[in-house]
Amino acid sequence: MSITRNDDVGLGADDEVGANAQPDEGRIAAELAALGEDPLGAAELQFVATQGATLSDPDVATTDTLIGLGHPPTLLPLDELAVRRVWGSVAGRTGTVGSSAAPPVTHGASSTNPVMLRTVLAGFAVAASLVLVPRLGPQTDRSPEVRQADQEALSVLGDQARAGLAKLPGDADTERATSLADDYAARLAARTRGGRGE
Amino acid sequence: MSIAFLRRALARVPTIVVASALGLSVAAASGCDSESAAAPTESAVNPTLRVHEVLPSTPTAEGLAYVRAMAAAHLQADGLSAQSRQAVLRAALAQPVPSDLPEAEILRLETATRLAEDLIGESKQGEGVAVARDVLAPMLAPSRSLPLDRTTARALVVLGDAAAKTGDDALAAGSYARAIRMMSILRQELEQ
Asked: What's the pLDDT score for residue A19?
């Protein structure tokens, strides 16, 4: 049997791992030697001889993944979901679903890789677009919450407009109209005088 | 106010888009006539602002009669109760405008704004607010060029208030935005 490193987090079976794979003591010994490991002991040889052929793909894949959890590759860090999937699979096989066998999942920057961070940010962007698009649609489609927000923004805009107007100098209506009429009359008088002078 | 200033102002006043701050939709600048501006239904925000300078016209006897009548109407309205005041202002607005009298534009806008403020102020049932909006909206339609004057900014603010009270948020937002833009131009003129 050959158990190769499965870099794909989760329970996907490797091509070299299968129920049809037969135990091969010589190949195992060669692989262990290549890894610098001690050769199989008598008990291990007996296990391979009696149980090796009965191991199913999921069992092997799960074991492989658990080994990977103990020696995580630096380029493909496991995320929380993969950890939970593996431990969930183990718990399901051992009949301890719902037990506290699963390791605690930590939340924070230390457990978040850049890919996850980008995914989260992309999620926020999508959520923002889902919120914004209806606001760009017909006014009648606005939800009460959006309408409330628009009302508040509109109120602020109105306050700004009124405040700006108050700071802009100007006469009252009557004074302005009277001034304009007086100016007009003066210009007409000047024009009349000019016409007579010609 | 110089022509050079007017040119600079016009160059600075293309279609202004401020709707993003409100999250409201921005419509194409065209197609907003007086009827649609006065429509009670919600439309799209149109912050288009076109301005022009009101230059002194050649004075005439007919023109003088008109401006004096408008000034007299305001003076008369000062001492009247709300209903009588509104009647006087309506009558002033109904006066025929002599030809070649650009000053009448500001006088009419000023009178309509005062009437609208009166209607909004005393309105309890909302009917006066709707009337105020209907009075001002055609005069301030985005498709029209507006006189570069404080009266215009004030009229836009009042139109925004009326629109907000009648639930037309788009018209209100567009009117406020146009008023703020108009005041910005006027302030720049004062600083020069």
From this structure: 40
Contacting residues of A for B178, CB less than 8 Å apart: none
**Nearest chain A CA: its distance from B7 CA (Å):** 22
User: Would you tell me how many other CB atoms lie within 10 Å of the CB of residue A193?
Assistant: 10
Residue B181 CB contacts under 8 Å (≥ 6 apart), including other chains = B13, B16, B47, B49
Distance from CA of A131 to the nearest CA of B (A): 10
Intervals of chain A under pLDDT 50: 1-21, 73-76, 99-101, 104-115, 117-122, 124-138
Neighbour-count burial for B82-107, b at 16+ CB within 10 Å, e otherwise: eeebbebbeebbebebbeebebbbbb
Best interface-test mutation with B: which of A155, A184, A191 has the largest number of B CBs within 10 A?
A184
Specify burial of residue B6 (Cβ count, 10 A radius: 0-12, 13-18, 19+): middle
- State pLDDT tens for residues A125-154: 444 434 433 343 445 566 777 778 888 889
Record the tokens describing residue B76, joined without a space. Answer: 């008369």
In the prediction, which pLDDT does B36 show? 39
User: In angstroms, rounded to a whole number, what is the distance separating the alpha carbons of residues B156 and A55?
Assistant: 81
pLDDT in tens, A20-39: 445 577 878 888 888 888 88
Distance from CA of A16 to the nearest CA of B (A): 57
Mean pLDDT confidence for B101-116: 96
Task: Give whole-number Cα distances, A70 to A5, A67, A84, A182, B112, in Å.
Answer: 12, 5, 14, 95, 81
pLDDT given for residue A83 in this prediction: 63
> CA A68 to CA B74: how far, in whole Å?
89
Predicted local distance difference test score (pLDDT) of residue A39: 82
Section B155-169 average pLDDT = 94
